Amino acid sequence: MVKYTIAVDGMMCGMCEAHVNDAVRKAFPVKKVQSSHTKKQTVLVTETPVDEEALKKVIGATGYTVTSVTSEPYEKKGFFHR
């Protein structure tokens, strides 16, 4: 699994976060997506890598500006994980 952290400018409230989350969910097969207007970022987890340029376009089409995208391997931490 892959975790993407996307820096997003322009989100001001919870509705902005929901708008970005919905756009990402519709465009990509994500396991988890969570946006924060206070942190100015969106974090998503996918089973397979996604095209970062396409990700920027999808979020950009909602009216917000993507300033950076970083990715890293993601390992789910379960209750008994050490």
Strands, helices and their partners?
Blueprint: E1 2-9, H1 14-27, E2 30-36, E3 41-46, H2 52-61, E4 65-73
Antiparallel strand pairs: 1-3, 1-4, 2-3
What order do the SSEs take from the amino end to the carboxyl end, as H and E? Answer: EHEEHE
Which blocks of ≥5 consecutive residues have pLDDT under 50?
none
User: What is the CATH T-level topology?
Assistant: Alpha-Beta Plaits
Distance between the termini: 18 Å
Number of domains: 1
User: Cα-atom Rg, whole angstroms?
Assistant: 13 Å
Biggest beta sheet summary: 4 strands, antiparallel
The helix tally amounts to: 2
Order the strands across the largest sheet as they lie in space: 2-3-1-4
Helical amount: 25-40%
Mean pLDDT equals 92
The CATH architecture: 2-Layer Sandwich
Derived structural class: alpha+beta
Query: What's the CATH class, please?
Result: Alpha Beta
**Approximately what portion of the residues adopt beta-strand conformation?**
35-45%
Tell me how many strands there are: 4
- The dominant shape is globular
Description:
The model has no long low-confidence stretch (mean pLDDT 92). The protein has one domain: Alpha-Beta Plaits. A 4-stranded antiparallel sheet has the order 2-3-1-4. A hairpin with a 4-residue loop joins β2 (30-36) and β3 (41-46). Helix content is 29%, strand content 37%. The chain is of the alpha+beta class. The chain is globular.
